[in-house]
Amino acid sequence: STIVLIFEAPKDFNFQLKTGQKIRFGEALGSL
Amino acid sequence: IHTAPARTMFLLRPLPILLVTGGGYAGYRQYEKYRERELEKLGLEIPPKLAGHWEVALYKSVPTRLLSRAWGRLNQVELPHWLRRPVYSLYIWTFGVNMKEAAVEDLHHYRNLSEFFRRKLKPQARPVCGLHSVISPSDGRILNFGQVKNCEVEQVKGVTYSLESFLGPRMCTEDLPFPPAASCDSFKNQLVTREGNELYHCVIYLAPGDYHCFHSPTDWTVSHRRHFPGSLMSVNPGMARWIKELFCHNERVVLTGDWKHGFFSLTAVGATNVGSIRIYFDRDLHTNSPRHSKGSYNDFSFVTHTNREGVPMRKGEHLGEFNLG
Hints:
The complex is a heterodimer of chains A (32) and B (325). Chain A contains no helices and four strands. Chain A is mainly beta and 32 residues long. Chain A is globular, with a radius of gyration of 11 Å. Chain B is an alpha+beta fold. In chain B, 29% of the residues lie in helices and 22% in strands. Chain B has ten helices and 13 strands. The longest helix of chain B is centred in the N-terminal third of the chain and has 28 residues, at 14-41. The relative contact order of chain B is 0.15. The chains are: A mainly beta (32), B alpha+beta (325).
């Protein structure tokens, strides 16, 4: 199963992720 | 061959044939991998090998919905007490489940595999990050993320799907559809509500051993739900690299609404044996049901005359779960 988020945000929104990394619920995806 | 009687010609042994064809195929795959490694060494980017139309059609013809429903039914049968530990232990060993995090560690507690699959976690197992505006709604692996460009979203690197096919046509607040988007840019413009904003996406893959509940990734208001009945193909990263628009083929539930910066959506995409998606505040939602046909979609608006806002969700709040079936 998969979760896909699609959202609008200002241009300075930054993901704090790496492709392929493991993530847990509650950990940061990104912020402004 | 010339001297053998005609009858013995038809008595060819299946094992040597299997060995020869299987060995040939394995050799070919090894050669391909070797060639890819050599190209990588030379610094050349290898384009992803996508499934052809007939391969996708063949896969889609497999009754994955029916098989998943059967698997779901089978796993609702209560297991005898003595069988629970060996069955769940095999699942834990196969998929690397961390039972230390489970709210109930005693395997005998789970009456069947479905209950085990949707097990809850200890409250302290997943602290919610308070500093960042968007958190991960689930456990899993990041398949892709970034800015949406040209209305094409990447499911994995180099393999895309259409944003419009995935979300379906945009609805106005009065439940009327927007006029059909003349171009992909106009569809993107229907989603982006504020000047200077951009559209972002993030794809999280949940492996069979992961915690299968999902939570609200931010503070937002859910105004609309769209359920797309569809296939239940595997969504593991290998398949996502092979089948273009995989997420547009599969059964999914799209929740849309608004957060402080405008449009926000969360989509739960089903997979083989996991086509049953539950949204806790949406009791009318029934996924992978035989009465729904593939290729259509069912809408439900949470905005009513009495509730003009929709359903408010706090960051980290329980939102829904994937189930076997």
